[in-house]
Structure formats: C-alpha cells, structure tokens
Amino acid sequence: MYCSKNCQRQDWASHKIECQTVVPTPFDINNKVARKLICATCEENLDEVLECIGCRSIQYCSSKCQKKHWKKGHKDECSKRGLYIFEKALKASDNYNISVFYKYGTGVAMDLKKCFEYLMKGSLQGEPKAMNNLGMAFFEGEGTEQNSDEALIWLRAAALSGNVTGYHNLGVVYKDIAEKMLIHAIDSEMCSFYFDEIDSNLRRSFESFKIAAEMGYKESFEPLASRYRRGVGCETNEERALFWESQVV
Q1: Do 51 and 37 contact (CB within 8 A), yes or no?
Q2: Closest by alpha carbon to 137, among 122, 124, 155, 159?
Q3: What pLDDT digit, counting tens, does each position of 31-57 carry?
C-alpha cells in the first residue's frame, strides 16, 4: 500500500518482479472479494486453478490454455520467475515449498533426493502437507527406498493434522498393501492365513476414502462409490454408490 501515486511509481522498479510473481488471492483481509483468479490465456474466471509447474506463479483454466500461453512467450519468463520464488522460499526456510521446487524443477534442477530431505525437515516441524508428501515419497520410493510402513506413519500424521489428501492417500496405500498381500497369499496357497489381514486393510482403505470424500475431496468420490457397489471393505450399498457417483463431475 502507498500514500500516493508518486511513491507507488518509485517502488515499481523493485516491486515489478514480485508483483508479477506472487500468486493472486481472491479475497482481501476483510474477506471481501478483491479480484478474481483468471486464466492467463483466455481470461476466464477460475473455479479450480491449474498452476504452471515451472514457475508456480501463473494459473490456467485448462492444459490447452497452458500450452498456448507457453508458446506465446511464457516459456522465456518461466525459469526467471521460478528462480525468484525458489530464492524467496529458501530465504523464508519454507521447507514444504522448497521440496516442491526440487520435485518439479522449479527455479532449480530437479532433484528427488533433495526433495525428500526438505520434506523430512518440514514434516519434523509439523507441516501437514509435507507429512503427506513425505508419506507418498516413501510409498513410491521417490528420493528414498520404498517403505509402506513409513508411508503409513507419515500419512496418518498428515491425516490427523487435518490434511484431507492424507486420508485419501491412506486409502491408496492400504489398498495397495491388501492387493500385494492377496497376490502373495494366492501364490503361496495360504489365502485363509492372510484373510483377516487382507480384510482389515481393505476396511481401512474404505474408511480412509470415506473420510476424505465426506470432507469434500473429489478424488475420493469414485473409489468410495466403487467400494460401496462391490462391497470391498464394507457392506454392499447401491444407494450410497449411486450417491457418490453423482458427485463425480
């Protein structure tokens, strides 16, 4: 904020890059609409934001508009903006965002091991989004060895901290554990021995998807509907299956 246009002009030389880089927000501090998020290409209002992974400072309504903007000239300025926000994150010791920059190569060379290191730092500081991403890094073996037990530990921590994506990802991991256990049971002809454990993991997967869906996480709607329809981890319920299917846009 400025006291006059003259002071605003004087500040523009240093403020220009930051002004163009900082992601706009739709509300001001008084919760009044300040400005709408619009697509950088077609200028349509954005209900859901598709962010440029390169610089994380430009938004689009679709991948089609993103490609157009890239060819139109964003390619040349993307790395410059990415470097600027990466340096800002380093200065602020923003471990979660630093990890994201290393994961996608925003303003710095892609480095999954560095990404993992900063995710661990952020998680140990109690950052829910870092805990969620750290859990998935362990699950997928990105920047570290694959470890489903560690993945569950950090995803549970993220979920209990209120991170809805953590609940969804718990559903994904529990499902994967149950499927691998089932394959092993069939191969070893010991299905009855593993049955209780497989059933327990399927129920945990269902409950995790259910919590995420009820919290409004759209990615969980379809898997929850599928489980209600097939009775996987729960009792078959066609009415609930149809309800959650109707929520999928």
Answers
A1: no
A2: 155
A3: 444 445 678 888 777 666 677 877 777
